Amino acid sequence: MPSNSKASRFFSLVDQREFALCQSINSSLRFRPVQGYFQVVSRLGDGWFWYLVILAMPLISPQDGLAIALLMVATGLICTISYKLLKRWLIRERPFISFPSINCGTPPLDRYSFPSGHTLHAVCFNTVLAMTMPELAWILLPFTLSVAASRVVLGLHYPSDVAAGALIGGCLGLLSVSCLSGVFSQIAATA
Predict the structure, then answer these.
(1) Where does 28-190 sit in CATH, by number?
(2) Domain residue extents for the chain
């Protein structure tokens, strides 16, 4: 898909302004424990951690866990479609591609950077849980924050990618609960 030239020019300016911050955060990779921690968090943030949470929901909350799990699955699909469309339309190269001095701490799942899909999903799921099971959301919040931080530490995203992913994810989580939770509660009640 051809690059959106206005977006390209905008991101080129923003990339230059965020470069020093990215490089500074990325320099923490020289400490093996930091790199190892964020690599594991990033890998779990690929979806594995959230798949386990979704599968465990009916066990964690027998009364409404199935409805919450179904809501998270539907919301996760909406998140995936949203961030993939945005990445293809906006085409922002990852920091380690644009700036060779930034180290790539783990292989990316795709080429483009904006918005952070890992952060989008993590914040979205944490928002859904905050509105349906707040006690679990508080327990999972450190993981969500670690996923967001991992994206910049590992050289995969700019801070603005993470901020945009968090904003979009939070909005999608709120919309999902307000628009879809009743539907999935009814489906779960008939199951």
Answers:
(1) 1.20.144.10
(2) 28-190
pLDDT tens-digit profile of 130-150? Answer: 999 999 999 999 999 999 999
Calpha distance 186→191 (Å, rounded): 9
Say how many residues make up the chain. 191
Q: List beta partners, residue 93.
A: 112
C-alpha distances out from residue 143 to 44, 49, 104, 186, Å? 9, 9, 21, 30
pLDDT tens-digit map of 44-67: 999 899 999 999 999 999 888 998
How far apart, in whole angstroms, are the C-alpha atoms of residue 139 and residue 142?
7
The Cβ of residue 1 has, within 10 Å, a number of other Cβ atoms equal to: 7
Q: Where do the H-state alpha helices sit in the chain?
A: 5-26, 32-43, 49-60, 65-90, 95-98, 117-132, 134-153, 159-190
